[in-house]
Amino acid sequence: MTGYILKRLLSAIPVILGITVIVFIIMSLIPGDPATAILGSYATPENVEKLNRDLGLDRSSIEQYFIWLGNMLQGDFGRSYSLNRPVLDEVLERFGATLILAGTALVLCSLLGVAAGVVSAARQYGLADKAITFVVLIGISIPSFFLGMMMILVFAVTLRWLPVSGMYAIYGGGDLPDLIRHLIMPATALAVVATGVIARLSRSAMLEVLRQDFIRTARAKGVTENRVIWAHALKAAMVSIIPVIGVQAGFVLSGAVYIETVFQWPGVGRMLVTAILTRDILLVQGGVVVVAACYVLFNLAVDVAQSVLDPRVKT
Amino acid sequence: MTVAEAPVPPAPPRGAAAGAFLKLFARNRLAAAGGILLAVVVLIAIAAPILPLQDPYAQDTSQKFLRPFAEGHLLGTDHLGRDILSRLIWGTQLSLVVGLVASVGAAFFGSVIGIVSGFYGGRVDNLLMRGIDMLMAFPYILLALAIVAALGPGLVNALIAVALVNIPFFARNIRGVTVTLAHKEFVDAARLAGMSNLRIMVSEILPNVLPVIVIAMSTTVGWMILETAGLSFLGLGSQPPVADLGSMLGEGRNALITDPHASIIPGLMIFVIVMSVNLLGDGVRDALDPRLRSGALTRPMARTIVDRDHVPEPPAEPGLLDVQELRTEFRIGSRTLKAVNDVTLTVKPGECLGLIGESGSGKSVTALSIMGLVASPPGVIAAGAVRYSGDEIVGARFSQLRDLRGDRISYIFQDPLSTLHPLYSIGDQIVEAIRSHHDVARAEARQRALELLEAVRIPNAKNRLDDYPHELSGGMRQRVGIAMALVNDPDLIIADEPTTALDVTVQAQILSLLDDLRRERSVAILFITHDFGIIAQLCDRVAVMYAGRIVETGRTPDVLSDPAHPYTRRLIACVPELGEGQRELHAIPGLPPAVDDLPPGCAFATRCDKARDVCRQGEITLDPFTGDRAVRCLFPETETGRVA
Predict the structure, then answer these.
(1) Nearest CB to B134; choose among A22, A277, A311
(2) The whole model's pTM is what?
(3) Taking every pair of C-alpha atoms in chain B, what is the biggest distance, in angstroms?
């Protein structure tokens, strides 16, 4: 197992390098003089020249890439001009908030989605199945940012059950119950679409498995129907559900950009949007590389989880 | 497996495929509703220039945030006093166009990459696909944000970003299809005809992948509309005063609490568009999915459905197991296949009864009906009864049935690779069989499992307990299956062709193991097979099945030495005997009849060389003769038969 994890870790290195190459290529698409783009059109010529030198923009593209990569490996992602602090510090701080939000949403959508799919399959064409199918259809069609706004209207403005936005109350907040109160709406809004997708897939994966011979064997043994569904069938279905949860993690992370904007959650998504609007290119670049690299590592963890579940996977 | 054994109806002619597709699509009312909804939205968006709408840019700050149904403004006005209805329709048009263009762009570039990659293969393929993999390593929105950051906010740039991000999806799918096409005969023929690679790709490959491209587009266009709207919502797409649905929603958000209608209206519109596209897409996918079309994607329930008029009277002398007048049907659509028709059997304690017949004769369905394990739907027990020690179990409560399953009556199935759970160790699976019926500690159950693995002669059993099924050989797996069946000391084992999937030497070992075990433990066996050789070796009595009915029963030596039914005689002639290499093996000409369309009279008449006209009319009964034998034939082969 350790060997397998090491092997997968090694295989992640070229992928992460590829990500840096792609980000580098995209950033070289910036029209005109990058230094001006970074510093804004009112920058003084001295500042432009200094930044050009700092970024190594007077050298060839390949040299520039390796300088940039070398700097990143040493933890130097440059300075954000709009915030006037190191990019990495800002990104890591914001990323923590995003992880809390996206992680909660991912747990929510995995649990609810799989449970809904299993119930739906076990009662195929029954009332529960029809109800779940209908709710899922609505769920995967509603834009998360719109859903978030409607939740604010209903639960924060009208019913006054939950705070409108933010991560902590400005006065007297900061403890865990406060965080949870602020987390409920954005995490739910973020989880809805992924829950629907996972529920759909879990349902068809379960239907596929329930027709297998080993389910008949379990029933012939006299195993209780609850165990047949929730242990025998679900375990086998998880083999095809887990990769989907891995893919949905990417969508949840993406959806966080909208949800953080709607709920003014101080995460990396809102940071990126603000950075784009203020043309803080170094902050965008650093944020994208860090988050994408973490996403690669997450997918690796999904693969490892898969190999733990399924002994037939060659480790 | 049980369903597959029922005769398969002939495939419909090819021309009917398109008709079936449309029929299924029309039957899906949700998809039709989605289609109509989408058509209405698209028509209104197209008609925007000729509709009597107000100027979407005309500001009037004295009229800002009018509520819906205000005079002159059906849907009210926004923060600058602009007419929301007009902005909504123009915004819908813009959102649809942008989403569609992004979709076409992604489809075009993705398909080019996919076709080139799949057609050339080798290093070109490797290089392009590694690049695509890299793009897919990003959470998609990060990539889109990076592109917008580089190009600057704006609707066109947002469109480019969304299109680029979706290229990998198309490239992957189209490559997959192209790879399979690239080695087809017609492509080779085009090469030999001296066509250039470019021409082959355009004139031979492209027309064949076009349907895939269209389907991929139909599943992604709703998504792309949503994504461009999302970027506009964030302020990175369309810039004021032009507004698509996303930027309308984004602008409305600033006054969400005081004037929610400015947000709700564009939000609902996005929702309606995305949902109608989803409904339509689901309908297309369902209609194209052949598994769904045949209705095969239903899961079997915990027990077979029972739908019978009356319960037969209990027999005068009940055996261990009495199957009475059993009829099991498969109800598929409007058709009813009578897989088992009026079967009566008795197994006495400690006895081995063989049930023999060809594939599709109904012998496995009979075996599975006993414990309600016929896949249902489509299986239905339509008549008859099954009694264990005199107690009726077809109509019993499920808990009562479950108590019997695996405890008093257990099964051994045909293919142990597919019948054992692939993700549980064999030890756990045996332990579970014990603990489902007996309240014993895990360690004790494990000890019992170990003893049984030794009893079925698995070498080094202690180390095998934690193995998974895929780590064992076929013969070892079947020994595990037998151990699992024996673990609760059952009174009856139903063995459904347990050796058919094994090779001959292993088969012999398993059979002698079963024979030893049944004598040691005095357990009764109902043995299902198509091989008279096995019957001869193992069974005290035999019942021969044909087309869902029993055609002959009797003690094994009697039937073997003096078969009464012509079918039995032919089956016995199929068995090769050692040392008789010269003997000719007689395959039976023809096929068993389809059980939904049985001819009147004897079902075997069409394949029987003795059949006369009387064989093809009326009901032919299973009549007893000498001793405990019975035969369903008007002209039995034996002298002693049919003492009419």
Answers:
(1) A22
(2) 0.87
(3) 111
